[in-house]
Amino acid sequence: MKSVPLRWLIVTPFIVLTLISGITLYFVSTITISNIANTVGIQYIKEVEGRIYDRVQNFMEPLSNIVDTNLHAFSHRPALLDDLTPIAGRFYEQATPYNQMTFISTATVDGRYVSSAQDPINRGKHNIAANFVHQPLTMEGFEYDPVNFIGPKILSDATFSYDPRTRPFYLDAIKENKMTWSAIHPYYGYPTLGIGLSAPIYDQKGTLLGVTATSIALRELDKYLESLELVEGAYIFLAEENGALIATSEGGELYRTTEGLTTRVNLNSHPNKVLQLASGQLATGTHQLNVDGQEYLYFVRAISLNYGKKWLIGILIPSAYHKSILAEYTQSTILITLALFLCTGLMGSLIAWYIGKPIHRLNEAANNKNITSIQQLPHPLSNIREINSLSQGLRSMADNLFDIMQNLEKKVAERTSVLQGENDSLLENSLTDELTQLYNRRGLKQVLEQSLGKAQQHHQKITLVLCDIDHFKQINDEYGHTAGDLALTAVAANLKNHTRLAEDIVARYGGEEFVLVFINTEVTQVMQRLNSIRDHFKSNPVVHHQHITMSFGVVHANADSAISAKELIEQADKKLYEAKNSGRDKIVV
């Protein structure tokens, strides 16, 4: 960017301001009245927009509040999901205060599903829907019973197979692994749009328990926009960021179904030309729109819902509404403008000289690339307090700069050393299982791929063993997870004692599963070590004088084999599965 002298920078604004002042005086009547008129129009729009904004926020807020409440309850009390019948009562009570709420539901990982349900059109009564009452994965409708929660079956409701784990609300929540909005969609069999919010449920250990969700009918928003009393020729719409309509003030269809295919109506394809042209400008703020010679004041505001969802409110009012208050302007005098221009220009020149001279000296000293040039500046440099303060500050900075530069290199070196140590520690922790101090799955992947590559490069044999503790769940159930952790550490110690630390690999693959990798070792030697491991367990009880056993799946790759790490683990897993199914405490090769 081209630089300009300070004096011109001071003088020019004076001249520009003088011209602006003259023009302002000349057009004072027009501009003042026009601003008042525009303000009236904008105030009208913002008043209407504020009501719509509050209505939409209040309308949509129950979805996220209810999902948050249920997610918190199920995550901290997973036992609630063991019996979904009382949950039906919980959902019914949550839905009752909200006339717009169509579904509040939960689906478990084993396919059970329960929800409070309400007709999105003929609202006023909430019922219960469940797929586990009489037959698994069979959806039925029930009356609400305040005592038993799930009351008599509603004979008029259809009975059909229903697995929630195949439904979009479940799949989307699992895929995104967070609170997720569904796409706005027409309710099947009902002339209204709807939207849902779902979230995956995990217990405190990170185990997936299911998905909880809410769904709401948007028909009331469309009816609300239609009910607003607007100035003649005004339009209001509620749309998604891509222009897909949610509601409009003039009614009309919001989706079309042709030959079984349903599509949403978009602003750019709306039969109303005003709304069509509005689709070309969806940026938030105030805009001007001209439709066949008719001007509109057009305002767009974003509605930020919870969890990343954003909608747009668009309001268009004819400019004739607020421009009707414009009056004829009066002329201002050119002589006043000229005199103002000359006086202001002269004053600006004097101020520029008075301010610019000491600043010019500061500039020369600062650009001299020599600290002494700044230290030798006169004091006081100017009668202007701020310039003197700046000069003193520069001198102080010059005095401190040398000391700072001397210490900087030392501090950088010290900090670099600390960061390197922290990085090494983080790397080690990311590859090591905290409980057993063995490689974790990430560490196993890294060292296994390296070892496998070296073995194939040097034509060495490699044997991979996938093993796990038999009936480990019984140890946790009977003696507690602390005992289970002791069993895992004992197994890890036994495995390490029967492997070569420098050559073999021992890793905790996950849960009670472990992986052993033997490089350039015969299968007979591997079998001897595995039997030694088993014998150690037989001779040494692990927890509460109890002996444990392990099952082993063994895969051996010859020196010329081109097998991958993934294939080795998959084959070993099959062998382990065979050992488990054939009675456990076995080695399957």
TrEMBL record:
- Which keywords accompany this UniProt record? Membrane, Transmembrane, Transmembrane helix
Q: Which Gene3D superfamilies match?
A: 3.30.70.270, 6.10.340.10, PAS domain
Q: Which cofactor does it need?
A: Mg(2+)
Task: Work out whether the entry's keyword set contains Metal-binding.
Answer: no
EC numbers: 2.7.7.65
InterPro entries assigned to the protein according to its UniProt record, in alphabetical order: Diguanylate_Cyclase, GGDEF_dom, Nucleotide_cyclase, Rev_trsase/Diguanyl_cyclase
Q: Where are the transmembrane segments?
A: 6-28, 333-355
Q: Can you name a GO cellular component term?
A: plasma membrane
Domain GGDEF, chain residue ranges per copy = 460-589
GO MF terms listed in the record are:
diguanylate cyclase activity
Checking Pfam families in the record gives: GGDEF, MCP-like_PDC_1
Q: Which GO terms describe its biological process?
A: cell adhesion involved in single-species biofilm formation; negative regulation of bacterial-type flagellum-dependent cell motility
Q: What class of enzyme is it?
A: transferase
SMART domains (alphabetical): GGDEF
What reaction does this catalyse?
2 GTP = 3',3'-c-di-GMP + 2 diphosphate
Any keyword Transmembrane?
Answer: yes
Q: What start-end ranges are recorded for coiled-coil regions in this protein?
A: none
User: Which PANTHER family would you find in this protein's record?
Assistant: DIGUANYLATE CYCLASE DGCM-RELATED (PTHR45138:SF9), REGULATORY COMPONENTS OF SENSORY TRANSDUCTION SYSTEM (PTHR45138)
Q: What name goes with this protein? A: diguanylate cyclase
Q: Which organism is it from?
A: Amphritea opalescens
